[in-house]
Each structure stands twice: as C-alpha cells, then as structure tokens.
Structure of ERIP6 protein:
Amino acid sequence: YPSGNLAIIVVREKKQLICIVQEDKLKNAKIQGLFKSSGRSTCYYPNGAVWINMNIQGGQYFNQAGTRVRRWTWPNSVMSSGPHVPLSPIFVSLNQNVGVRILGQDKIAVSFLAMGQQAKFNVGTKVQVSDGNRLPPPARLGKDELLLLAFRVRILRLLDRLHGCLNFPSNEQRDKIQPPSYLTTQTLKILQLCTSADISGELHSSVRTIVN
C-alpha cells in the first residue's frame, strides 16, 4: 500500500499456491481475501463477514447480514442435485486499492492500483469434477454438533428479541416485528439436517424445541 503496509502475499503450501489480501494496517491486519489454486477462495467484508465463497463446484455471494443473495455453478462441475446456475460477472472492491473480478472459474483476477500503477494477479484455476471423481457426501453431524447449532440460533433469536425490546417498548409494536431472514433460514437448515441425519426422535424433538 502507499502507507508501506503489505497488501498482497503469494505463498506456496505443499502443492498449491495461496494468494492473500490483507487490509491496510501495520499490525494485526485482517485477511480480506484468500485465493487457493485448489479452487477454494473466500472474500470478506471489512467487518469480517463472508462476502464471496467459491469452491470447485461454484460459488456464493452474501450480504453483510450473512444472507445469500446469489449463487452459481461452474460449467464443468458435477452437482449432486439441483440445476446449474450460470455466473454473472462480479466486480467488488475489497478496499481502496484492491479489487476482485470474477468472470469464470479460470478468470478470477485480483488487481492492485496505487499511485498510478497497477498489478494484476490471476488467481483462477480450472479444476473439474468428473462423475468418477464426484465429491463425497457431507459428513453427518453428531448429537453435540446439532445441539450447538440449535443453541446458537436460539441465542441469536434472544439477542434479536432483546434488541427489539430496547427499540420498541410497546408490546403491540414489538409483536409485529418479524425475525431477520437469515435466522429463519438457519432455523430451517438445522431442521432439514435433523430430517436427513440418522438421529433419534427424542433428539429431533429437542432441537426443534430449542430453535423454536
């Protein structure tokens, strides 16, 4: 950066290259972008929330509240289920000097611009998943993991309720406020996990009670 702080680092870890974008700070600089030649990449908002997340199958775009607003699949990926969704070009600015352009799986560029000079890093990769190399199904969550997820949603709901009590002392006004969409989405995902997982009816009932 013009300040002299390190902006972009490219390192080798075993057989893959990793490109790291840091914020413009001398100490305790947060990571704003992480791009791996294996096809996994993540960009972060200034507050640390995930902005863009990509893997060898496709990617997702989130707003700062954590709600997914876009998703896509790469043309050559093999999805276990669901339709293929094409990518619409994405351009984001991680900070004043660093931008990211996503046009395709092998057309992802990190650009650095400062004091009239520019540097570009091609961080895209062409990783294909064939039928013979299909990704394994996600690991099933155990009892402890499901309960932790359920309590996390419960705590977030209570905090949201407390925030509503502070802003709207009237019960009539407060009862009209709906919980944030991301909490509703997370609740549904946890209940879906319970349905797909091989768990007891007692545990399923406990999780449902916690999140509701």
